Every structure is written in C-alpha cells, then in structure tokens.
Amino acid sequence: MWGTDEVRVRIFINQGDSSFVEGESYLIGYDTASQSIYCADFDGDGDVDMAVERSRGYGEIGYILIFLNNGDGSFADYIEYETDDASGYLYGNDLNSDGYIDIISSGTDTDRITIFINDGNSDYLPPVYYNVGDVPDGNDGGDFDGDGDVDLVVANQYHGGGTISVLMNQGEVEPNIGTSTRLLSFGKVNVGDSSSLSLEIYNLGYDTLIVNSLIIGDSVFKVNEVGFTLFPESTRNVTVTFSPVSTDSIEDTLIIFSNDPDSPEWIVNLRGNYKLVGIEEEERVENQEMEIECYPNPFNSVTVIRYSCSCPSRALIKIYDVSGRLVRTLVDEEQKTGDYWITWDGSDNSGERLPKGIYFCRLKASGFISTKKVILVR
C-alpha cells in the first residue's frame, strides 16, 4: 500500500466457498506507505487482530499500528507504536513464553530489528533493538536449538549480496537490576555544605523491574527517589546527597529493593569525608575530550572498540566491572600515533564468559584517560 493521499488497509471477507467480498477499510495515515501486515490474536480474546507497518520511506521514523478486533469482524481505532527506524517487514511470535504474541519489525534503512514485548494487557512495552546485518528486510522464527524458546532469523539485503542473522533466544524473562557503580564516594565535604552524586539504575533484563524502595540508614545521606518502574533495557538516574554534621569519615549503604529474583536487595556503598584514591582519583583528571567508541553497545557477542593515540605512547585498555574490579586487559603496549581498533567478546582474562551487566572500558594513552560504559547482554 503506497500513496500520497489517504492510505487505508482493506478487509476481504471469506464467503466459505474460496471467494471473498470487499469489507471495511481502515485509515492508516496520509502521504505515507505500508509494505507489511501481520495478523494474530494480540490481546488474547480469541479474535484475530492486525499489526500494520507504516512509514514515509527511507530515513523516516516508522510506526507499528495495532488494530484490535471488536469481536464482530470490525476493528477499533489503531494504537500507534514508534520504532525510531523506517519500519519494514513484520513477524509475530511469543518470544518470552508468556502466552502473548510479541512483534518483530525489521528496520529497512538501518542495521537492526525492533522487538515489542506484549505486556499481556493489550499494550506493548517500549521497543528493544538488536543489531543485525545491513538493510534487514525479512524476519521469521523457530526453535532452532531445541530449548523450547523461539529464536529469530533475519534476512539482510547487502548491496551486491546478502546474509542472514540468527538471534538465539536466551529464555530469560526476568528483570535484572544493575547500577553504574557499587560505590559512591563523596570525598571531603565541609560541615554545613552538601555534595550530590548521580547514580544510574539499569534494568538489563527482559521483564519490567519494579523498584519498591530505596533505603539509607544514616540521616547524613539522602536519596531523591522512593520507588519507580523500569521497562526492559531502560535507565533511571537518582541523586544521593551527603550533608555531613561532623568532619568524621562515615560509611553507609543504599539498599535498592526490587523484584529482581536474583538480587532483590541491591547494595551500593556510600562513603563521606574519605580521601579519594585510586580509580576514584583518576576520574577527577579524566580528559572529557578524548573519546573511546564501542559498537555495538549494548552487545551480546562482540563489540568493536575504536580509539586513537595523539602521540607515540604506551596504550592501556582495561575492562572493569561495576565494583571496580579489573576483569580484562585488552591492550598493554607501546603504540604509534594513529587510530586503532580491537574487539572484546565479553570474556575475562582467563577466557571465561562474563555475566551480562554493565562494564567500563578504560583507555589510558598519550597522558589522558577516557572511559566508556559498555552493556553486555545475553
């Protein structure tokens, strides 16, 4: 369906003798186009609903329009979901084994697919993106590894050739909490003054994370949130403030209570009136203009780390976990002036695969330091 004016999707009713009659049509927009429809029971009421792709073409934001069946062969006004990319071919299946149909869309002018997870209440969670090959233009699914989960295959339309991408379902449908650090250290703060630090809280899982409460024991530390909800692959910033009443050093903990079954009580250590040392002190002199790039990020198999040396120097690239523990040294050598790249497959120095979560890739070269947050998903 392509058009420059009013664009509609039309229903044809089966007469039971292999013939069809023209039924109602439904508006999807103006000066727009659609090249894919997927039909299934999205709201679990036993009726067949419609998902319609809509976009204005390459380089434009795409949308998925959900038309829910009223139960009499007619459809309610569509519910619109934005994909960020020019949406392409649609496919549906129960990706998280909850009994509801999720939707997969290939971004026809990008290198990724978009997945909308059905929340079971006639609505879809914010999209999650997965990098595949160049110009994905077809999706399908099946249990390729025999583990009972639906895996995905994507056809990629490379210029002059083609590839396929296979995404293996990890079978995890639980929330997974993480934070940008496990230690907030405020250094020296004068009595009567206050110092605030930001803490990022992540949901790295595939189900909604419910943060029920954030508790701090000592009154000299305060957090500005009491509870919230995080959709999969999303982030929330909270602020912790230290207001000392004496010059004594003090330690406390921020406990984040959530529905993460593996970490229902996530702890972040707090320190006030301590001297900054080691990795914390390095953060204060970090060069904000020097860039280190990691792509894709988040990643589930390999990320490419690109960096540069502005003059001949010793280059160090190390990977740290959120507790500040060194898990992998990727580069430790003298390098000439120039641009470089290296890959990291998510393993530690012993070759063991690290668990999914947040890691920090730190470059020291040419007298400068640059750090990039990297998210490993499984």
UniProtKB/TrEMBL annotation:
InterPro entries in the record: ASH, FG-GAP, FlgD/Vpr_Ig-like, Ig-like_fold, Integrin_alpha_N, Secre_tail
Keyword presence, Plastid: no
Cytoplasm found in the keyword field: yes
Lineage, uppermost ranks: Bacteria, Bacteria division WOR-3
Protein name (database record): FlgD Ig-like domain-containing protein
Record domain FlgD/Vpr Ig-like: where: 315-365
Domain Abnormal spindle-like microcephaly-associated protein ASH residues, every copy: 182-261
One Gene Ontology term, aspect cellular component: cytoplasm
Keyword tags: Cytoplasm, Signal
Localization of this protein: Cytoplasm
